[in-house]
């Protein structure tokens, strides 16, 4: 028989396995499986998240933190836990059942290209209210994404999954920043990736901006890229935005709100409280609207989940086949790129050996003498934009000379004066039609990152004007603050010019080779 709690009092949910009847699986994540279930004494449908901490390598601290945090939560827009308990090596977390499932699930099932703007505004306003509460209470959520925005049967929206959340104010000393590296790369703020100065609740605002793009397009920027590439693109490229041709349907207030969140310098991002005042949210409607607009006619959550699993399995099988072809193609492009630039590996090694010791460090040279750049080529190529045929990049995690993010790129001069002339010719031949059209995240139909017209022009300009004798070029986030971080004065001037032209965060020299080689191929009439 159901027991009733007094007004204002929280019901005490039973903490015995026998008190729950588990039904179908309705979700799974990195560490858990979630079931629809019935709490027998209350005759209430709930969700039970089961985490096997033995299988998950026993991050018991993380898991209990998640459970404790969830039980203490008290806000209509944040999913709380009714209770949690340990059964063998499983932790059971009992939560309210969110019958609509996550926004990611809803999009995958019915709106693969994303939601309409007023649906997004309504959902995001609720999420922001939840974030405002969490930040006020000293939490960083650290995993804001569509997969963690849950909708109940009435269209009410809650931010879920504290799998990686932690107290911002540690045991009384109110330490505001943390130095751990957790989260999901696509939504991860640059400062979290850098792990240099720690991060604070503003990391959630970046993830919130990425989530807004995810809801607008049906997927997060760079979502088809491997994690390492996502890291590089987030750190090196301009922040993603809602500015491509396909985004014309969205209002300028939406674009502006996203641009405010996706600023690389966290101190310049607004708080959740301030964001809520943005005019974009004026179009937000009620939960009934969400229910009518996106939940009506949806199959049951369990059925949707099973259908998605089948679809996912098919995609994985297809991808396995494609990956074989892709690896071969990539290898061919790599070889072609090398020959286009007439690379001489031994000569490059010899050049590197001539560079004084202090310079070597900045070049990211390892004990074998800049070999990292040469022998990591395959891996790097996989992580570079489509067609990047040569990698003249050394990563230096220990370069203390540069005031950057710890990733240093060295552009070693592959260009003879003849090659530069060829490049110049190529640029004058390359018409705008040769360029890919600007896309919001630069991902082409094959899932490769492709440069836009303006990027090509910029990088060609960069390749031509860059002093190839210059060995150190920082790729640090010269985002909207445009702080120059080049050590050498000449490079600094070059950098400043570049920043004036493109002040929103691109210092990406990665692609010089990509574009230069593309141009070279075009000039030489080689099929690219
Ligand atoms: N209370 C709930 N009601 C309905 N569905 C839920 C509920 N909690 C979670 N889910 C579904 O289960 C999925 C996985 O849950 P959750 O994100 O908590 O697991 P996780 O292992 O922590 O995931 P992550 O990969 O984000 O770390 C969610 O994306 C959502 O679709």
Automatic annotation (TrEMBL):
UniProt xrefs under SUPFAM superfamilies: Protein kinase-like (PK-like)
Keyword Kinase among UniProt keywords: yes
Positions of transmembrane segments: none
Gene3D superfamilies in UniProt: Phosphorylase Kinase, domain 1, Transferase(Phosphotransferase) domain 1
Binding sites annotated in the UniProt record for ATP: 49
PROSITE patterns in the record: PROTEIN_KINASE_ATP, PROTEIN_KINASE_DOM
Domain (Protein kinase) ranges: 20-281
InterPro entries for this protein: Kinase-like_dom_sf, Prot_kinase_dom, Protein_kinase_ATP_BS, STRAD_A/B-like
Region Disordered, residue ranges: 426-449
One Pfam family, short name: Pkinase
Keywords: ATP-binding, Kinase, Nucleotide-binding, Transferase
CDD domains, alphabetized: STKc_OSR1_SPAK
GO MF annotation, one: protein kinase activity
SMART domains in alphabetical order: S_TKc
Leader sequence segment: none
The family this protein is said to belong to: Belongs to the protein kinase superfamily. STE Ser/Thr protein kinase family. STE20 subfamily.
Protein name: Serine/threonine-protein kinase BLUS1-like
Organism: Iris pallida
């Amino acid at each position: 028989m159901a027991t009733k709690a007094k007004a204002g009092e929280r019901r005490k949910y039973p903490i015995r396995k026998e008190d729950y009847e588990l039904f179908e699986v309705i979700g799974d994540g990195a560490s858990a499986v979630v079931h629809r279930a019935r709490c027998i004494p209350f005759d209430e449908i709930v969700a039970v998240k089961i985490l096997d901490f033995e299988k998950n390598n026993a991050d018991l601290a993380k898991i209990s933190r998640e459970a404790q945090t969830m039980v203490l939560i008290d806000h209509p827009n944040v999913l709380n836990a009714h209770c949690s308990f340990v059964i063998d090596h499983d932790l059971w977390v009992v939560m309210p059942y969110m019958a609509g499932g996550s926004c990611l699930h809803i999009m995958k099932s019915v709106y693969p290209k994303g939601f309409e703007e007023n649906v997004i505004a309504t959902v995001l306003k609720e999420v922001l209210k939840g974030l405002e509460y969490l930040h006020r209470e000293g939490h960083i959520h650290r995993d804001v994404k569509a997969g963690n925005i849950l909708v109940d049967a009435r269209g009410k929206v809650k931010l879920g999954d504290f799998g990686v959340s932690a107290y911002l104010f540690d045991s009384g000393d109110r330490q505001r920043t943390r130095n751990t590296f957790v989260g999901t790369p696509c939504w991860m703020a640059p400062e979290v990736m850098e792990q240099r100065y720690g991060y604070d609740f503003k990391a959630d605002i970046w993830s919130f901006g990425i989530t807004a793009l995810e809801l607008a397009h049906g997927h997060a920027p760079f979502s088809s890229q491997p994690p390492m590439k996502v890291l590089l693109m987030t750190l090196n490229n301009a922040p993603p935005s809602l500015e491509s041709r396909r985004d014309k349907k969205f209002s300028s207030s939406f674009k502006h709100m996203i641009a405010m969140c996706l600023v690389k310098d966290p101190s310049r991002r607004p708080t959740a409280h301030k964001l809520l005042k943005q005019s974009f949210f004026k179009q937000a409607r009620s939960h009934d609207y969400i229910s009518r607009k996106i939940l009506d006619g949806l199959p049951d959550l369990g059925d949707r989940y099973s259908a998605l699993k089948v679809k996912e399995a098919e995609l994985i099988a297809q991808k396995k086949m494609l990956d074989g072809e892709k690896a071969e193609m990539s290898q061919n492009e790599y070889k072609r790129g090398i020959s286009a630039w007439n690379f001489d590996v031994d000569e490059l090694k010899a050049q590197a050996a001539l560079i004084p010791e202090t310079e070597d460090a900045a070049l990211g040279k390892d004990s074998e003498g800049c070999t990292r750049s040469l022998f990591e080529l395959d891996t790097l190529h996989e992580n570079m934009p489509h067609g990047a045929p040569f990698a003249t990049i050394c990563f230096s995690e220990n370069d203390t000379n540069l005031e950057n993010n710890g990733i240093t790129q060295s552009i070693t001069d592959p260009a003879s004066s003849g090659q530069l002339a060829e490049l110049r010719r190529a640029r004058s031949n390359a018409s705008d039609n040769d360029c890919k059209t600007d896309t919001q995240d630069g991902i082409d139909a094959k899932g490769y990152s492709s440069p836009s017209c303006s990027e090509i022009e910029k990088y060609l300009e960069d390749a031509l004007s860059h002093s190839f004798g210059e060995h150190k070029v920082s790729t640090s986030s010269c985002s909207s603050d445009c702080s120059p971080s080049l050590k050498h004065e000449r490079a600094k001037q070059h950098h400043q010019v570049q920043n004036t032209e493109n002040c929103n965060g691109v210092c990406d020299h990665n692609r010089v080779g990509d574009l230069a080689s593309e141009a070279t191929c075009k000039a030489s009439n080689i099929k690219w």
